[in-house]
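seq as requested:
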Amino acid sequence: MIVRIAIVNQVAVVAEFLREIVLGVPGYEVAWVARDGAEAVRRCSVDTPDLILMDLALPVMDGVEATRRIMADSPCPILIVTAALDGSTPKIFEAMGHGALDAVNTPLMGNDAEAQQGRDVLIKRMETIRRLTSPSPLSAQGRARPGAAKDLPPLVVIGSSTGGPKALATVLSGFPEGFRAGVICVQHVGGEFSEGLADWLSGQTRLTVRLAVPGSRPEASTVLLAGSNDHLIVSPDLTLAYTREPSTTPFRPSVDVFFKSVVAHWPSRGIAVLLTGMGRDGAEGLAALRRARWYTIAQDEATSVVYGMPKAARDLGAAMDILPIDQVAPAILKFLDRGRPPIRVMSWEW
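struct tokens:
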């Protein structure tokens, strides 16, 4: 199957360099090249590619606005490929909030090891995105361990992908100071950008946001964010850890792997949420959590940037409630206060 990739970059020599990288991958071809964001929007409307490599610094219309318009009018996978990522963190996550899947540095030109590494990273990200809509099924990781989570707060777990940063910010901004639950989030984003995402989310919520490190545990009023290209999991001792397995899943970190580890090891029921995203990652895990009698929520279609992951959860019957993004935090708060969800979209037993 041929994968058609579009390139959006105002610098001719860089656009040609990216074109050579794309053509060097078997089964990939260049659909078209655009020099500014407005041209990209126009071209995408008449010839939607399988993937767009989108720069941020563009004339006429920047990459953030171009991403927003493309995802609204002719949605397709978008990978931000731009220089100086360190200075572009707010714009990167704004673009991801509109639907961009991930971001990488523009590879350096040359034949040295650093240049080759940059090309390899770009190719790997393109291949990961190609596989997003057909992930390998994951097997369940075990049954919930009996017992009580002594001295641990109530737990809220959230998975998200395409459009996830903005959706996460909406949910987390709805939690008050002194929020009595601990929150763990798995967002599909390269490990090198997770620290920037944590910093950005810190400005959107009253809670403390930091990267999950091996050995850490959930804390009240604290958001722990998966911060590695490996999968975040809950270990039998109830601490967090990272694992490379399963190595074949295209999602890194995987929401399914994390959710299923929660089912296997977390000793009490909590709240699980699956937000906007491409593909099916997290749907099986959410279903497993529902079977373990957790309160499960999926974002609705109208407010999802891409209705893939939450739709898969809906189709599996994994979500007790299907809610607009602005109702997710209130539903969590009401459940924590009353011990039951406020809205029923599907019949269920607690």
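Confidence is low (pLDDT under 50) at residues 133-149, 340-350.
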